[in-house]
Amino acid sequence: MTGTEGKRDVSAQQTIHVGGEWLAAISGATRDILDPADAKPFAVIAEGGSEDADAAIAAARKAFDEGPWPATPVAERAALLRRVADLLVRDREEIGLLESRDAGKTLEEGRVDVDCVADAFRYFADLVIGEGAGRVVDAGSDDIHSVVVHEPIGVCTMITPWNYPLLQASWKIAPALAAGNTFVIKPSEVTPLTTVALIELLVEAGLPAGVANIVTGPGHTVGARLSDHPDVDLVSFTGGLVSGTKVAQAAALGVKKVALELGGKNPNVVFADACATEEGFDTAVDQALNAAFIHSGQVCSAGGRLIIEESVRERFVAELARRAAKIKLGRGTEDGVECGPLVSQQQREKTEMYVASALEEGAVLRSGGKRPEPSAVRPAEGYFYEPTVLDQCHREMRVVREEVFGPVLSVETFRTEDEAVALANDTEYGLAGAVWTSDSGRARRMARRMRHGTIWINDFHPYLPQAEWGGFGKSGVGRELGPAGLAEYREAKHIYQNLAPEPVRWFAG
User: Could you tell me which residue ranges the Aldehyde dehydrogenase domain spans (predicted)?
Assistant: First the structure.
């Protein structure tokens, strides 16, 4: 089915949605989607190109310029977002399973992702419904009415990564729709399936035709066109630094607004006082494992740099390595599995390259560092790699400076608070970081001095939809989530009304 019923013809690989219709690629090309647990294809999608992107942008442009959505009352827009959240709750198991198979994460991680997406849609619904009619500006005269209002920016294009395809799509789609925009989204060609499912839910919720469009296809064609097309008003990209730079350069030629989230090299700083008790030691070790190895380290905010006070380094790293070696690897849908495969053969080879480079540069392997033995839940063809702990690392190593995006933890040591700050900030990124200490004064000082967009104190990884997410330095430009995440998709307009106009008499004539 296509069109008004909002259903796509799976057998025809109709994963491109343009102007309210599900379509195959104009070229007829398709792509197999592989299950990273066994490297076998389990779905087929349309492989769109620049022509498909042009058609989608044209549909979004028409829907914004001529359609009802930008002028839809805020209450109605918010109600639609809440309907989408309810549909996500309804389909939680199905979509969570799809996310697990597509991205390789555990089923429970997939379910949690669906919950977080529903939360994001509800948050932005609540945010826009709670706003006033604009900010009144005091012009110093009763005869002047001055107000600043916010309007949708227009046609937004969105390019999302492979590690959290559904979550990252929601961080862009929910505020864009809440603000009244139309959009075209391109999910990663590696993990597109849950984004396609989300578009289906938007259609089911009653979004007008042309407001939500998706083109499945590669970055060098579809992504490039979404970045440089003259009818696009904003480009939002989440992904790697190299690709993000290309997006920014293409968008700059048309003076488009750009929002970029480009990853991080995130420090997890542990002071000895956090480990002074057995409970504190256990918690800090457990959280260091979570920081580095959840979703096999394929997280932009992964705590891949453990920076630990020298006096507790040996005990801490020994226990960390012991526990890392016990992490249960396997297909994410199997019971008891704690960590799934890497997303692709390319990503595993990249991880292996970084580990080999670190060892050549003097790092000491404390655990992992190789592909695991196959098992009943871990097919030999799958892209598995053991959680790896590299001790005695230093800041000149590639594994310390560059984003690995794999289950690799590097260990550095410090003696003083100043040295800990210097190490934490010695990165061209600045997305997130954590500090572990029982000293509240030290915690506040470290949080103030660390140059990262999110600082966790005695925790790692939680985020709130009502709090901004984004980074300093080469971690990107702009913010997602929170009020600033909504502001990315709006233009501010000042309306100045003179209630008692009279001649100015500036010119004598």
Answer: 26-495
Residue-by-residue DSSP string for 204-263 = HHTPPTTSEEE--S-IIIIIHHHHH-TT--EEEEES-HHHHHHHHHHHHHTT-EEEEE--
Asked whether the beta carbons of 43 and 193 are under 8 A apart, the reply is: yes
- Alpha-carbon span 90 to 280, nearest angstrom: 39
Mean pLDDT across 243-271: 96
Buried b (16+ CB within 10 A) or exposed e, 119-152: bbbbbbbebbeeeeeeeeeeeeeeeeebeeebeb
Give the global pTM.
Answer: 0.96
CA dihedral 126, 128, 129, 130 (to 10 degrees): 80
Q: Helix or strand or coil: residue 332?
A: coil
Catalytic residues: 261
| Euclidean distance between CA atoms 193 and 46, whole angstroms | 11
| pLDDT value at residue 327 | 98
pLDDT at residue 5 is higher than 70: no
* Beta strand pairing call for 30-35 and 40-46: antiparallel
Tokens 């839940």 correspond to what residue?
377
43 beta partners: 33
Whether the per-residue pLDDT at 160 is higher than 90: the answer is yes
